Predict the 3D structure of the following.
Amino acid sequence: MGLTCAVPKGRPMKDLDAYFKALGGDADFGDSRRLTFYDAGLDMALIMSRSVDVPTFVEYGAADIGIVGKDVLLEQDRAIVELLDLRLSPCELVVAVPDTSDVHQVSDLHFNSRVATTYPHVTEEFFNSRGIQVEVIPLRGSVELAPLVGLADAIVDITETGATLRANGLRIVGSVAPSTLRLIANPVSYKVHFERIKQLTERLRALVREGVKPA
Amino acid sequence: MRDTRVQTPRGVKDILPKEASIKSALERRAADLLERWGYARVITPTFEFEDALKAGDGPILSDQLYRFVDREGATLALRSEMTIPIARLVATRYRSQEMPLRLYYVGNVFRYDEPQAGRHREFTQIGVELLGTRSVRADAEVVVLAAALFQDWGLRSFRLDLGHVAYFQGLVAGVDDAALIKNLRQALLQRDYVRYEGLVAESRLAPKRKRALQALPTLRGSLDCIEEARGLAADVPGARVALDELFELFRLAQAYGLEHAIGIDLGMIKDFDYYSGLLIEGYVPELGFTLCTGGRYDELVGRFGWDCPARGFAFGVERAMLALDRQGHNEERGADPPDLFLFTDEADAASLFYAASYLRARGVNVALDVDDKSVCTWERARAKGARRAAKLIAGEVGGETSAERAALRGSSASSVWSDLRLVLDGDDGPTLTLHDFPERRREWA
């Protein structure tokens, strides 16, 4: 029986494409609007979902395995197995403030600083562990907007090159955590399909080690 | 704003009749089975002193306790699992009893958890504790009993994975880095194998020990993985004990005919700190979370002042229901409809109650029309869900149509019906007419 794998739509999927091809996959994700595929080459059903939903599909067992950024896993406390660091889509969760701000390091933020983020749990934990009390403002997206319009003094957001932050007049003052794509599994699927998942993990591990040429 | 008068809090729910009947049927079946195996039921309080409930926990579980303060200022908490209360009970009330002791429980537990996949804040656990012996055979009894419960509930292709606390403990024994051990444990517990492997790789452990630790997440399967582990941990005494015990357990389960249902998982770690040996996880492929967990806990009872080795398991009843549902079972386990809906239009209510009493005494399950001004019709009676309906008619015998009379005479429980007619008809009393709902006749027979 083939496995079901939840993969994130959009750019992470493009990064993954070369890996899937190297494993013998033949589905062409392209810009199709379809949300499920059967990939005969991989003998795997693929579910295309939003990145933040991948852990949900996997935790409930709707998908046996999934691929998702570590940033998403850090934010959601999910009962899943984290099997492998695919070293793809490297990026970083950072604290950023407006260029004009007199905050130059994380510890300059104080009890009435407001921090906007789509990662409220990670943010809360990050500041708590440093003994810094801030007010966390959860947003669903466009976090860069918050300091520009006076909603927040700082943001915690994911960035790859920092270009979006700079374009919005923001400056990085600290790092929260690095993130790359991870291979995850449902705990029971990992038991039931252990040999298959182990084999897949080992093949991917070899690809990570040796690298694949982009398709 | 939320209207808290009409809503239930997050993580708890009402259970309506159909679901409730499935649930109690499962609980009854389990109780019957456990009693056949010689286990006696105990019931402990829903809330206790927080200190008593925390005697066994690591920090993870004590975060999940629902706490409150009583009028004398003592801190109480709702039980979050059943093993700790039973350990307290055994340590305080069973010291002079003949051992081993076989106990079981059915009860609700409460956890202040984030509700998600298969996790509620109140749920029912059924489980056993087998106390007062260190024998591996007692461990094996508990393992095969867990399997018997899966079978008795009709769950197909279930699996029980066995692990052992001493394997990992043996591998890290003597490692002079408490923080590393703690982090490794935590990574295994969270099943974050990426972090785990990173920690092992960066550690300054001997290469041989590193190899054994690296292999842990993938030491799963059957007897072959015990053999593989023997090779990896040949120089680790604690690990050897664990592997010998698991081998013996596997052998006994095999003799019991369960070899295909038993697996080994040496990377298993539990979030209760009281486990001291065998670990058990039971599941079915259709459900993404475990149905049953358990293991050996030799020091827990001792924390209440009396040393007593023990082991047990607990099933989540709601999860078992979900698993049965996924395997397509629940439909046939729904509530039994009543045999008969009994109503009247004109006859005196006293006759109605008399008729109900008469029928119930003869084993007919009667649902009574309790509407004071009944305008019940056969059509409405059908909607009540009973297999048949009966109508009491006031006045002289012979008020019914010939067709109804025929239905009455031809009924399969005819002796009860005709007796009732005789009695009711005795002195020109009310008479009873019956109506069959043909689509339900199958069940009636």
About this structure: The mean pLDDT of chain A is 90. The two ends of chain A are 28 Å apart (CA to CA).
